[in-house]
Amino acid sequence: MTPYFLFQIESHSFLIETHRLVEILQTYEIYDIPRSPKHILGFTAFRGSIAVLINLQSLLKVSPPTPKSRLIIFEYEHHNVGIIVDFVDMAHPLVSASTDLKHPLQTFLRQSYLHNDQIVRVLDLDALIKAL
Amino acid sequence: MPLPSNINAVIKEHTDKLLQYLDSANSGLLEGIIRQTQRLLDDPNLERVHREKLSALDQCYTRLKMQPEDEFEILGAIEVLHKNLLEPSTTKAVVHNSSISNDNLELLGDFTDEAIEQLQLLSSALLILDNNPQESNMINQAFRALHTLKGGAGFIGAKNIVNITHLSESLLSNARNGTHILQKKHVSVLLKISQRLEEAVITLQQTRQNHADFSDLSLALREFETIPQTQAASSFFIFRPHRSPLLRESIPLIPLFIKETQAGLETYLQHLLTLQQTPYPQPNDQSFRFVHNLKNTAQSFKLHLLFHLSFASEQSIQELQKPQPEQSQEYLYSLIAIAQEIQRALSALQTLIQTDPIASSTTETTPPINSAATVRVPIEVLDRLMRLSTELLIHQHRLSEPEQTKSKPTKSRHVSHPAKDINTLSHRIQDTIATARLQPLSLAFRRLNNIIRDVANATGKNVSLDIEGEDLSVDKYILDSLQSPLIQIVRNAVDHGIESPERRMRIGKPQVGKISIQARLHGSQCRITILDDGIGLNRTRIRATAMEKGLYTEEELTHFTDLQILNLIFLPGFSTRREVSSISGRGVGMDIVKRKIEQLRGVIYIESTQGRGTRFTIEVPLSLSLIPALQLDTISGPILILQHHVQEIRKPKPTEITHREGRDLLVYHSESIPLLRLSSILGQERPEEPYVIICRVNEELFGLYSSSPGQPTEILLEPPHPLLKKIEIYQGTTLLANGCPALILNLPLLAARHHLLGHHASLPTRTPTPLHFYLLFSVDNESYALPLHRVIDLERFQSHRFSLDAITYQKGHRTIPIARSLSMASKPKYILFLKSVVEYALPVQEIFEIYSSNDLPSPSPESELLGILEYKKRTIPILDPIALYSTAP
Question: Which of B682, B733, B739 sits opposite A34 (nearest CB)?
């Protein structure tokens, strides 16, 4: 089975393939991008390049990230993309599950799994970025 | 009897015999083919795949004998089967050659590098031989190149390359020893071989796969060795697109050609059927145009059967269009029969094209950028990098070493700080790497000769090509990316721009059209102009096409400037061409050209005078490494604009600013230029913006209000992030020296979006701005000039900053190499710092003027000079900073 890791934003939990993860940062500085849409949080310097941050909080309609949040960096088409999250953990063990629950990011969610008695779904990062 | 190993030869023999049979109707020839096919089928060892295909062929041959009235249809089927039968042997060869063995992989890099060099020699020799096939030095050069190539290919086991180079070498060997006279037709085939070899080597380099099939070219070479009757038997029905690079590039267009022809054929056939009711059937003009266009397109695609069928139809229609023609019904019946044959031929062609690997692959004609390309690096550059990295390690060690353990030098005049040294070394490493990546533009220009030659031949035009500045070097990535836009532009220039020799004669132009390509340095940019002396762009037709395609209304177009009208050709799918040819006319091309140039962070613009020609100007950075930029402070952080757009920074007086039509204008050098606000562009609150950054895009000026005068800096420009592509106002991103990320403003887009380009057409006529500035100085009482924009700094010369060996100069904490081409007997008073590919220094005696001129300098025959300047009745040579740099250590 594809290894996943889990991240949470408030009450929302998502899975992402482990191989997409580049780094988890505890300290970071975010810079504004004028004229960017509200789902772009800004950008940050990362490993001699930049990472553009997706504002998943605004898409989920939850509170903005706090200074305690962590920044996870993914690779997308040789570029870095970041998401600020409240919690990150290894997703193990996972049991296949099904759910009919509607979600604000329904279009970008794939398989469902049961993790610690909670339903979690795989976030299709590529589809999400393409749609933004 | 085993299946002959060279199935190509069998099929060729069959093809030749069929052609002779068509000419002579000698049934014996057909019997011979049938007997040979049946003998092959009797072989019990024949593989099933061959057996099935040969059986199908056998049936066709027999049918041709029994039903000669179905000749066209059967020949079409035979053509497809011939190709199919060649497939297994080709496939076998591919399998055999496709994978370079692991043992040979290490040799592959050496082979491809050397092969590219040898192919350059081969190509340059063949281009001379094309004009003078008896030039013995060039025959020798081509022979040697092929021989070396053959040897290298043998080492890596690329048998297909060995075979084709061997055959080509034999042809030249015979020409060298006088047993054979080299002719233009031989050179023509050799040029095609050279091009195909180059493609094969590039594929090898990129994919390590050897899929090249030279069987068609081998056949062409063997034809030169065989009896004349083989040559006389012209290819009547065989579709041979692989024989011409031009046609190979056109293969992706054939499915569209088939589709469009089938649609036209249906209408045409319907029309003919309705004419059966009339006593004197007269096909309409539309019918004639259909068969006439089909004839031309079939000819350009080398579709001989379709060409002959449409030609015959054209003749019949002309006969029918005469008043009360005799045998009109017979002509009409023959027209209908031929139309049905055209339908069958199209179906056969469709089958053939579906089995063609080129046609069934992508329709994108431009090759993908080769990110895995290699660059040959001189060993001294690697040595220099090695020395610099060793030095860097030493300084790093000094930083990490505890203070008390450091050994103290016994004598030291100056103790440097390791951090400063590391900074210096980092710059030098970056400069050295940037230099190593540079490649001359000649590598991109070289192929254009062949392209122009092919397109000119296909369109019956005479075109000459002048190239200037091919020694200018640009980054390898830029060079590779420029290739396809340049090909597209010159192809269009020959096909659309240059008139036919007859027309040129009629309008008083020289019979031979001219395309000039010039490459020059323009600041930190490389400027390439492609100028043709053809018909120019037709504004009326561009306007009409824009309206036909529903892009703009007539009312909207009346507000367009001339430049905006011309720029419409860069819209996707925009073509003013009424007829689509094999070369161009489908409107796919110029938008891709523009996109590719913009991907390189470059610009492209057009100037065109109807009846006199068109000039495309491309500006791209020389290198994608550090480029100069101006950092502007804004409320949300720093924003950068590329320095080559910046003309001047001003703090204008209120009286210099006027308002018209809701737009601020700045009076600048007696003209009014439009102003934009940086804060508005960024959607920010308007701070006090006392400064104006005067920017130049596509030779048009406009100003940008800014709260700060800006800070010059150097940046490593990164392409736009996928998530930022929709925010078009940014050209890319970068990291500043302090580690902060920053955005780069897309000035060309802003200028276009605010309709600033071409604005002067509706504003008062601009008095010419002095465009050329020069710094005049002397060395040993001789006067020289340098383009001012290349001088980035100057200071009084301090001899203690000179290194002992006088090859470097210490500027602050940086060590700058010195150009030594101007040897000085007297002591210098000043030192200039110049930017070429890297920064270097030039000691001079006196600096006596900054001189501006509207005129271009007079050209100089000396390659190290940019030209000659007329100054106070004196002539002053303008030094070429690139040539000067090449003498810096």
Answer: B682
